[in-house]
Amino acid sequence: MTWELIINLLSWACFLVGGFFLFVGALGMLRLPDFWARLHAASIIDSAGVGLILAGMMLQTGFTLITVKTLLIVGFLLITGPTASHAVASAAFVSGSRPKDIVEDATIEPAKPEKKKRAAKTARKSKS
Questions:
Q1: Per-residue CA distances from 55 to 15, 22, 64, 109 (Å)
Q2: What pTM does this model have?
Q3: What pLDDT score was predicted for residue 70?
Q4: Cα separations (Å) of 39 from 46, 82, 103?
Q5: Max alpha carbon distance in the chain (Å)?
Q6: CA-CA distance, 100 to 80, in Å (whole number)?
Q7: pLDDT digits (tens, 9 = 90+) for 38-91
């Protein structure tokens, strides 16, 4: 086997696997039931699908200036994609949207009955 054939096989494998991730992610965007699951599908499309397709393109072009630019694009996508997904998820969580599985917000400490009693006694003492 020649190096050219090996590089072609690897690049086409990247294209096929990247296309698979794009297809599954797009299908997930259409079929998944809620916002949180769709957000996960969107991040898969961005990170895995586009990253693998760009890796296949880098293998096809060889080591040129185009490869360096494509590598910079992959790096940019790998940094900004998860960051954007986290920002969207955090904004949705703060605005009150919760996944269906969450029953209670674990970030807020529930008020203990002892503290409520002390607060009520303190309020009564300050009024009198």
A1: 8, 14, 14, 46
A2: 0.68
A3: 92
A4: 11, 10, 20
A5: 93
A6: 27
A7: 888 888 888 888 999 999 999 999 889 999 999 999 999 989 988 988 898 899
As given in the structure block, the two tokens for residue 121 are 């006694």
Using alpha carbons, list the distances in angstroms from residue 27 to 15, 42, 48, 69.
18, 10, 15, 30
Q: Where are the domains of the chain?
A: 3-127
Q: Where are the alpha helices (DSSP H) in the chain?
A: 3-31, 35-44, 50-61, 65-94, 113-127
Q: CB neighbours of 37 closer than 8 A, spacing ≥ 6?
A: 28
Residue 128 carries which side chain, given as an amino acid letter?
S
Other C-beta atoms closer than 10 Å to the C-beta of 56 total 22
- Residue 104's alpha-carbon distances to 2, 96, 110, 116, 126, in angstroms, are 60, 12, 10, 20, 34
Q: Which amino acid appears at position 8 of this protein? A: N
> CA-CA distances (angstroms) from residue 54 to 11, 14, 60, 106, 108?
9, 8, 10, 40, 42
Q: How far is CA 91 from the centre of its chain?
A: 14
